[in-house]
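thought: fold this chain, then report.
action: predict
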Amino acid sequence: MCLYFVSDVKPPKTGFGWKVFLFGDGFDINNQLHISGGLGTPTVAGRLYREQDHLLPANEPYFVGRWNVAVGRTRILARDGIKYSRGFHIYRHKKDAIKRLLAYYNTRMVVRQVQYEQGIAQGTDCQMEVIVANRMKIIRHKKGKAS
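observation:
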């Protein structure tokens, strides 16, 4: 994912939002994500993997309840022609993350609430509000709750 439009307004340095993840089930991660590299890498059942941000290798799961730190400091060119620093792309609203999830037509994707620190940019992706941050912590999911 990348931003379509980058806002001139600085993002909050900390806050909460929503992110889409691949839910590990032991099958090859690349059969679902259509990405290069790591072919034949199985996912670990019950772990969360990257959706599309490419900040961790495909076969490395995110930590739940601990801070995940974005690697690399390259800049991304948004569709409006503005460059912004690479980081975790986090939806401000759960309904928007669910829209993104539904676009995949993939039952292996899940939406989880996250906390972020070091907000570095904000803008929109398909008219949905997104924060880009250097640090993200996945909030522990309560069993029995949808998405």
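thought: worth noting. The radius of gyration is 15 Å.
final: tokens above.
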